[in-house]
Design a protein that fits this description.
The protein is of the alpha/beta class and about 400 residues long. The protein contains 13 helices and 8 strands. Helix 1 crosses helix 10 and helix 8 runs parallel beside helix 13.
């Protein structure tokens, strides 16, 4: 019997940790899963365990010499030659430094995303959520932006090879999904869409409206670069208007979405000023489009998000609540429309407040009435509207 939604767990993903000071902290996975379980939203029979990706699967995207370099640098004490070569593979930067065990951890994450895509395409499930995935900045021959292996691209490549499926990739991380975009820049059957803070001010400095694909892939790429200090209304207008047109024009067999939650106002690594509202509304729209256009086939991945206490657990939980059609999702949608609070589980707050360095929010959604409105709101909205109209004008 086909499951409505499966929650893919990749054992080993919790070992993907650069160092104690690095903002990419796998604790966010544990906190989010804890929140879902405490809320009674993650039954054990919805959970699937994934195997690590094989070298063959990884090398559909990454060069063999890069994979070999990652393996050599994964040793507790890498040999001198491996250390000398590390820089050429992008693994000596402050963002993406090599660490012991990184190949196994990266392969575990990639395996989770491949397994999620296979579960959906094989008919095992309508939807699959791999929260540990979404490492969208890695390139064939180098790591970048906290990403060693590009699990999203690896999973899409697996689907393309086995099922010859047309894939719509939707990236909602505040940073441009550059690695996935360029992995399929010449492929007309993989449409890459990314909404993000403009690369004029934010890493990786790409994702502009003129990036539309190359050769046969021209037209199968769309970027929505938004102004710093964009708020909910403008972000959601741009997302709804552009991604709906694109999805209906492209007619995918599968939607793969990346749900980085670093466009939140509390996130320390961006300048967008959105609330938890967008992390409820975006998966709702993607869910609707999947059922309208591709028989419900939808794979969701995690991604960025660096306020691990106040933002990530709530935002990533919302993806699963929407995907699994848990009653709490409908309750939150009603509360969002009415402006009323829905409290987080008291047991979860008590469990994690003891470890948090900041006060945890009491509710699932944010009360933005207490937030100061951003200066230049009207001008930001106008500029963003021009961006989405320009980017989506051909659809």
């Amino acid at each position: 019997m086909k499951d409505k939604a499966v929650y893919m767990r990749s054992s080993g993903a919790n070992l993907y940790k650069f160092n104690e000071e690095h903002p990419f902290n796998p604790l966010r996975l544990e906190m989010t899963e804890s929140l879902l379980q405490t809320a009674g939203a993650l039954p054990s029979d919805a959970i699937m365990e994934a195997h690590p990706a094989s070298d063959e699967e990884i090398e559909r995207i990454h060069r063999a010499d890069y994979v070999n370099a990652v393996k050599r640098l994964s040793e507790p004490a890498p040999e001198p030659e491996a250390l000398r070569q590390a820089g050429r593979y992008g693994l000596t930067t402050e963002d993406t430094p090599f660490f012991a065990g990184m190949h196994d951890a990266g392969a575990a994450i990639a395996g989770g995303s491949v397994a999620a895509a296979e579960a959906v395409m094989s008919g095992r499930a309508l939807h699959a959520y791999h929260m540990g995935g979404g490492l969208h900045h890695a390139f064939p021959g180098h790591g970048s932006g906290f990403c060693v292996y590009n699990d999203a691209a690896i999973a899409i490549a697996a689907v393309r090879k086995k099922y010859n499926a047309r894939v719509l990739y939707i990236d909602t991380d505040v940073h441009h999904g550059d690695g996935v975009q360029y992995a399929f820049y010449e492929d007309p059957d993989v449409f890459t869409y990314s909404i993000h803070e403009t690369g004029k001010f934010l890493f990786p400095g790409t994702g502009f409206t003129h990036e539309k694909g190359l050769d046969k892939g021209f037209g199968a790429c769309c970027n929505i670069p938004l102004q710093p200090y964009t708020e909910d209304e403008s972000w959601l207008e741009c997302f709804r208007e552009s991604v709906t047109r694109i999805a209906r024009a492209f007619k995918p067999d599968l939607i793969v979405s990346q749900h980085g939650c670093d466009a939140h106002a509390f996130d320390p690594l961006s300048h967008i000023h959105c609330s938890m509202r967008i992390y409820l509304e975006m998966p709702k729209l993607i869910h609707e489009l999947a059922h309208e256009l591709c028989g419900g086939r939808w794979v969701a991945l995690g991604g960025g998000g660096y306020d691990l206490w106040r933002v990530v657990p709530r935002a990533w939980s919302l993806v699963w609540l929407v995907m699994s059609e848990h009653p709490l999702a409908a309750r939150l949608a009603a509360a969002e429309a009415a402006g009323g609070p829905v409290e987080l589980p008291a047991d979860w707050l008590e469990r994690w407040q003891a470890e948090s360095s900041v006060q945890l929010p009491a509710d699932w959604l944010d009360d933005t009435n207490s937030w100061d409105p951003m200066p230049r709101r009207e001008e930001i909205t106008r500029q963003n509207r021009l961006v989405w109209e320009t980017s989506a004008q051909d659809f």
